[in-house]
Amino acid sequence: MPDTPTILYCRCAYAQVVPSGVKNEVLQKLCDSSMSFETVSDLCEMAAHRDPRLQAIAACGKLRIAACYPRAVKGLFQQAGSPLSEDVEVLNMRTQTADEIAAALISPSDSSPQP
């Protein structure tokens, strides 16, 4: 489906700043859904190493990211030379509940026209 967003889930494995319960519950809800998603160990580490996968991720047309503060996530991609487009949705696992994040990640694309 061309209107299906790409979902990126960050485990935030190294900084340990995202509550484990939220991370695990979001991941479980994604696994239980029928949505396809990509998971990465740590976006901060990827940006620090200028991982080429960030460029591929940034090139996705519709993108939803479950990670940390939106400004920080966008800054990481910018730092790695792969800025995100303005319409990327970043969900903050540090401040939002797992239910809020999962609902936003799994919901249909907002931009698809309704029949």
Please count the helical segments: 5
The stretches of 5 or more residues where confidence is low (pLDDT under 50) are 111-115
The separation of the N and C termini measures 16 Å
Kindly give the count of domains. 1
Q: What class would the helix/strand composition place it in?
A: alpha/beta
* β-sheet strand percentage: 5-15%
Mean of pLDDT: 89
In helices, the fraction of residues equals 25-40%
Instruction: Please give the largest β-sheet.
Output: 4 strands, parallel
User: Rg from C-alpha positions?
Assistant: 13 Å
Q: What global shape is seen?
A: globular
Give a count of the beta strands, DSSP E runs of length 2 or more.
4
Order of helices and strands: EHEHHEHEH
Give the strand order of the largest sheet, numbering strands 1, 2, ... along the chain. Answer: 2-1-3-4
Brief summary of the model shown:
The protein has helices at 20-32, 43-48, 53-58, 70-79, 98-106, and strands at 6-10, 38-40, 63-67, 89-92. The chain is an alpha/beta fold. It has a four-stranded parallel beta sheet with strand order 2-1-3-4, with helices on both faces.
